[in-house]
Design brief:
alpha/beta; Urease, subunit C, domain 1; TIM Barrel; 2 domains; five-stranded antiparallel sheet; five-stranded parallel sheet; 18 strands; binds zinc ion
Length: about 450
């Protein structure tokens, strides 16, 4: 199958720009990237989809998401007004996640996945919590992911915050699902071991998690030093900072995602680098929770793989890119900042992070990479090329520009119409469930 017929940006190592490019797809993978004319000439019999001038880029990737947050949109906190991050967790998220049933979990995922496809996000690392419906929750989300047709890596966030039983169930849920995903060996669905955060995990639980993960040869997906509460807890109870504690517990390493890393000092940045631990930056969530600013520049300088995620705020990576860009400038009070950081965290590092979970390249269009691409309906009013694509992306192109989405060579959206999901029906059911959820909240 041939798809193409528009300006094509490959991203990735080759980082090529073709004025009128296309790809040949076979078995869900890209076999060739070339000019559209050449491809049509070489394969005259092939089924060809012409994008008629739409701009072709690799599918967008999100390195940290919470599908389960979907039904919180517009929720009434019933008089509560959290002042600090810890209170946001107590008053909103830790009350909401306890109200989730498996059906809520399924529809939350469906909503986030629909949003993802409409925003051109084709690969997501999710972090899930539903303390009263733990067992079977990852398989429930997996079902929604399979139906959506995108790629995702799932985990359950183990925590001691609700007592020993939910902690044990969380450990079992991860271990079982990681083993099942390995057995299934799908190019669409992967798993890793989820942990909530240092301040809700005892040494005993961390030790059990490490044992299980070691047996399964997997790393961890964990929030690290997001709020000051995490640091205070670690210093008070264990006499060390969060990254030091996680290092001593054997949680860090080349397969581990340390999400946020806002309140980390130089020594901790050194530990993250030495252990090869990956970091995920979530600027819009950090600003929304008013938790501070992650030292992205310092971490990148030290060679840490820092990627970009949304933390459940949305599935829109165009918005997150813009937010990361503006936050870099705003925080540093230096208008030169942002360009290089955004280029590295999203275009260079997100693909490196996904490569740890998926066997083929994600986030680039090259021979052997997944045939995951997005077509943008964007008519540039100024010259557009490889050298200034980022300028167009950060100042104009947004998720509203996404017209068609292809994953593994399969169309998921054409002319902004979802082809395999009944959006009307899913949203209507989600609204019904959200109403009931809010009553229980
Ligand atoms: Zn998160």
């Amino acid at each position: 199958m041939l798809i193409g017929g528009g300006p094509l940006f490959t991203f990735g190592k080759e980082d090529k720009f073709l004025e009128n490019g296309g790809v040949r797809v076979e078995g869900g993978l890209i076999q060739e990237v070339d000019s559209w004319e050449q491809l049509l000439k070489r394969y005259p019999q092939a089924e060809a989809h012409d994008f008629k001038g739409g701009i072709i880029i690799p599918g967008m990737t999100c390195a940290h998401h919470h599908f389960y947050s979907s039904l919180a949109r517009g929720i009434d906190l019933k008089g509560r007004s959290p002042k600090k991050f810890g209170e946001i967790l107590q008053d909103l998220w830790w009350r909401l996640d306890k109200c989730l049933t498996l059906e809520d979990v399924y529809y939350s995922a469906k909503v986030a996945l629909i949003d993802g496809i409409k925003c051109g996000t084709t690969a997501i690392l999710d972090h899930h919590a539903s303390p009263k419906a733990i067992r079977g929750s990852l398989e429930t989300i997996a079902q929604a992911v399979r139906e959506a047709g995108i790629r995702a890596c799932l985990c359950y966030e183990v925590s001691d915050r609700d007592g020993p039983d939910p902690a044990r169930e969380g450990l079992e849920e991860n271990a079982e699902f990681v083993a099942r995903a390995k057995e299934e060996n799908s190019d669409y669905l992967k798993a890793t071991f989820g942990l909530h955060a240092s301040f809700t995990l005892s040494d005993a639980t961390l030790s059990l998690a490490r044992e299980l993960a070691q047996k399964l040869d997997t790393g961890f997906h964990i929030h690290v030093a997001e709020g000051e509460e995490d640091v205070e807890n670690s210093l008070n109870l264990y006499g060390k900072r969060v990254v030091e504690r996680l290092y001593d517990s054997g949680i860090l390493g080349g397969k581990t995602l340390a999400v946020h890393c806002i309140h980390v000092d130089d020594r901790e940045i050194g530990i993250l680098r030495e252990t090869g631990t990956m970091v995920v930056h979530n600027p819009s969530s950090n600003m929304n929770n008013a938790v501070g600013y992650a030292p992205i520049g310092e971490m990148l300088k030290k060679g840490i793989i820092v990627g970009l995620g949304t933390d459940g705020m949305s599935s829109d990576m165009f918005f997150e890119l813009k937010t990361a860009f503006l936050l870099q400038k705003h925080q540093s009070q230096d208008p030169r900042r942002g360009w290089e950081e955004v280029r590295r965290i999203y275009f260079e590092n997100n693909p490196k992070i996904f490569k740890k979970f998926f066997p083929r390249p994600v986030g680039e269009l090259s021979q052997g990479s997944y045939a995951d691409l997005v077509v943008l309906d964007y008519n540039p009013p100024t010259p557009l090329g490889k050298e200034n694509f980022l300028g167009h992306l950060l100042f104009a192109i947004g998720s509203g520009s996404v017209r068609d989405v292809v994953v593994g060579g399969r169309f998921l959206m054409k002319d902004r119409i979802l082809l395999h999901m009944d959006e009307e029906k899913i949203m209507a059911q989600a609204r019904k469930l959200a109403r009931k959820l809010w009553e229980r909240f």
